Amino acid sequence: MNSRSLQLSILLMGVAGVAVGAPAAKRMDIVVHRGANHLAPENTMAAAKKAIELGADYVEVDVRTSKDGVFYVMHDPNVDRTTDGQAKLNELTSDQIDKLDAGSWFDPKFKAERVPRLRELLRWIRGKGKVYFDVKDADIVKLVKLVRDMKMQDDVFFWFSDGRQARKLQRHDEHMPIKINVKDVEELKRAKRWFGARIVETNVKVATPAFIKTANRMGIRVMIMYTGSDPAVFRRIIRSGAQMVNLDRLTVFPDVERKELGDTGRTARRSGKAR
Fold this sequence. Notes:
37% of the residues lie in helices and 15% in strands. Helix 2 packs antiparallel against helix 11 (266-274) and helix 9 crosses helix 10 (253-261). Strands 1, 2, 3, 4, 5, 6, 7, 8 and 9 form a nine-stranded mixed β-sheet that branches. By secondary structure, the protein is of the alpha/beta class.
């Protein structure tokens, strides 16, 4: 290539908005926080189904346990905010929880929604999408057994706010993927050394190409957490080279991604599987 051709190539790359030396944008795995929580009541079957319909790869669910040992999907320790009940979930039996209205608080049309039993949600989503477990209150050994009984061990990952619980999972079953939140390269290294992390979550400022390359060399996938809906931030995320994105609002991102990558198939593929 002569010097004039090289200059023209660089100019064209600048016009197209591609930074020289930046990683090529690739399709990311989309994780949706508590399901499509802006379109349906959070942590319900309706929110999970809508997330998959719109193109999500993973649905994030919060796991808690009833008084009689049944796993349920709910964020808060109390049922008050998202149901018509008033109690701590772990003080209610499964029969009591199953009767709660988990949808009317969001919109009367969701009155029929119930607090999902985790087993039922896994049975529905298997083969359609994957699951990110935010483990709030659950016996780790029993939860891993449920995942393996459902043959979903390759379609899940786990996060714990308590590092001791993450270590317990690692000791019990080292093949179960753990996600750790990090803010810099030093925390990235500790996530690998202490927890055998396979995924780290961080924000868009930390997730530079250099950070992502370092993580990937360690066998760690990078997930960017973003709770907003600014298309400019979405474009930055898509161009970052990260493998995953954790969204609070799903409706805008797939459209931005298609425009960036020329991919018109994400929603069609996922919607077809969700029927």
